[in-house]
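[scheduler] slot 2 assigned
[scheduler] job type: sequence-to-structure, two independent chains
[scheduler] chain ordering preserved from manifest
[runner] begin chain α
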Amino acid sequence: MNGFEEFKYFIFESRIPKSNPHLPLHNQIFEAWRKIWSDTFVKSGSPSGNWLGDFIKHDLLVGILSPENEVVAVHMYTFHNLKSLGSRAGEYLSIYSADSLAKLEFEDLDYCMSAEYLGVAEKWRRSKLGFSFSDVLLWLSVRLAEESGIDAVIGTPIKLSNSHKNCELLGCHYLESRIFKYGYELAAMYLPLEEAKAHPDPLVNEFVEYLWQTRIDTRRQERKLRVKELEHGLG
């Protein structure tokens, strides 16, 4: 299967519970994420405050591991209920204009999942492999959103990297064309899940399907372990 079977796709809670058996991997993903985004912020010259703390502010994080157990790529997700005043007052949604949020509500897209901090390790980037792990993570985010009962995926891709063009292929629409954060110009985009498109490269679709079907959801493993602890009076 084109060597896909050697790669693994993990799903974590960002704030990992103490009973999760994959803490070392969670730490490994953090180190890879820190390296990727430290390099990114060096280029922009403007990391904002203690941005490393963002790692545990999200609801979920995912990582793709190589056959050699290297972290290939990382992505993070947060759930937002637009009818919640607390959600709207949060840091992430505050960068969207009132008109953008009103548009999402008008289209009945009240429960959104933001996709943030997508990063691919240097040796695994398209320029070196001819294959986009960024695309793989983008298309996997749709699967995760569908499983989570989300209405739409939202995000602010960096325009300099042309990642907004990849989002267009996925079926995303523009909310705002120019937002500035961390020294970069971003595009605010959204994807109603029912409008998601297949990737134009069949190989990417095949890879996404394989990773999703073989995903290792550590949230489920942690819950099973917790149940066993309670059964044995360890809770």
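[runner] end chain α
[runner] begin chain β
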Amino acid sequence: MKKLKIGFVTNNEKIDFYKKNLIDYVNNNSNFDKSILINLNSKKSIYLKKSFFQIFKISLYEKIINKILKKIINFVEIQRTKKIKFFSNYGDEVGINTLNLEIFNIELNKNLHDKEEINKSDLNSLVNQNIDILIFFEKKVKGIDLINVSKLGALILKKK
């Protein structure tokens, strides 16, 4: 029986503890081949498409309030959840460099329509890896061309 090769896709330098457990399970299971991690990096746009007035009118206040509320909610949620023995690792993060995986760092470039794309050479190098299944760790799937790299498709782990 052929072993499955899984590619994990993220666009962060850190992943949470439960995703690390999934990666460790796949690496230690005899039914899976050595996995790889694909780290997508977006280039920041240097052009402002909105006017100065549009940026600072309402969106600035909304962004500040949203960030403050998210930090308060996350702090309270993590502290309360960590008190439960089963969820003692909730909220912990692990750097992707500490994982025992081969890491592919891929830069996403913006095209004329402001859509992020992956270089053809990077796609070809991933096709040569013979990945069977891709698992996306982020809810915003960047680089939709990656789905064609895997033989059996993709799984997107999505938080609400």
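[runner] end chain β
[qc] chain β: The radius of gyration is 19 Å.
[scheduler] slot 2 released
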